[in-house]
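pasting for the record
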Amino acid sequence: MSARFTYVTEWRLDAPIAQVWDALVDVERWPRWWPHVRSARTLHAGAASGLGSVRRLRWSSRLPYGFTLDVETTALRAPTLLVGRATGDMAGTGTWELACAGAGTRVRYTWTLDLHTPWMRLAAPFMAPVFRWNHEGVMRAGGEGLKRWLAATRASLPSQAV
């Protein structure tokens, strides 16, 4: 069995696409709303658009291990597409796709990765269902945290006259 995995997650958020986009591209604030992101730090700012930026993300998980990834933004098309290439304990590509869904936003995240940590590579043939369970829980916590963050952000905005 390969140590390559592909996971797809979908979130439905009751917020406009521009607000969701702003939260996703503000990676250094992820630890404020995503429980499993322990820290996020910019290593290289890249272009003004964010293209070429590199961020170091320290993650925890539902399992008794954490990992660190350096993620370079390799493509973006505001407010619908954000792609990053990760290196570190795992290597892969993460693709965020956003689309309007009524008054809200549909987010689809596809994470294709190769395991680099020796113990994960050895365990992969037996642990694949556990790795999927772990990933799904981390992503679910992120989606729920983002929903709360977006609701709080909307509540703090000044009311617009109609």
